[in-house]
């Protein structure tokens, strides 16, 4: 078999609902590496929120901020940021509606409303520390991504008004704010072009709406059994639930794990 390149989402894919790494997943990753395959992470998280996971799995290549920041074997090879002028307008509009924002750069994770219950609930679901309070942070540095906190019926006004951005829901209370051309698929395209990897040898595992483009772009997209139907419909394969050894099963399903 030719050497494969496999990208894994984190939440709901590598990590289960309790944000734990199943032992079967860890074993499967190490077996892939032993067989000579390359493994990378593709996540919406900032790099400082999965440093320990990278170390545990001995992974030094990753795509984060949903494709806006790409690292190949420890080297940053691609960075993309939100349009600063348009984002300032978005921040003012969101503030007028009392919708909080979280600002995400490669260095920090801050918010303009640290005590809002929607921020506490959604960020808490990731089992990471709440963002620091710095309402002017977006004016001080380039952002790779932001989080907007609004309910389902409140999003359309942003989509109509702010054409420079994509809004991808990740929680009932929150959406990712990305550049209009930003996605994990874009990040993967930059990664494999730099590494000289043929798309026919690329696999990806994911489970959420921010994985749609990635799963349809790669030759071998694998949706987790816990993924919504819309995500499963974009994938070539569907594996078991993350809690049911879904990664191990999926890798066997596509023929990447030796018996």
Could you please describe the fold and organization of this structure?
This is Cof subfamily protein (Haloacid dehalogenase superfamily). It comes from Shouchella xiaoxiensis. InterPro entries: Cof (IPR000150), HAD-like_sf (IPR036412), HAD-SF_hydro_IIB (IPR006379), HAD_sf (IPR023214). The protein is an alpha/beta fold and 259 residues long. The chain folds into two domains: 5-79 and 182-253, Rossmann fold, CATH 3.40.50; 84-179, Hypothetical Protein, Haloacid Dehalogenase-like Hydrolase, Chain: A, domain 2 (2-Layer Sandwich). It has helices spanning 23-34, 51-57, 84-96, 117-125, 156-161, 184-195, 212-217, 229-232, 246-253, and strands at residues 5-8, 38-42, 62-64, 69-72, 75-79, 101-104, 109-111, 132-133, 145-149, 165-171, 174-179, 202-206, 220-223, 237-238. The strands form two sheets. It has an eight-stranded mixed sheet, sandwiched between helices. A six-stranded mixed sheet has the order 8-7-6-9-11-10, sandwiched between helices. α1 runs parallel beside α9. The protein is globular and about 55 Å long. The two termini are 14 Å apart.
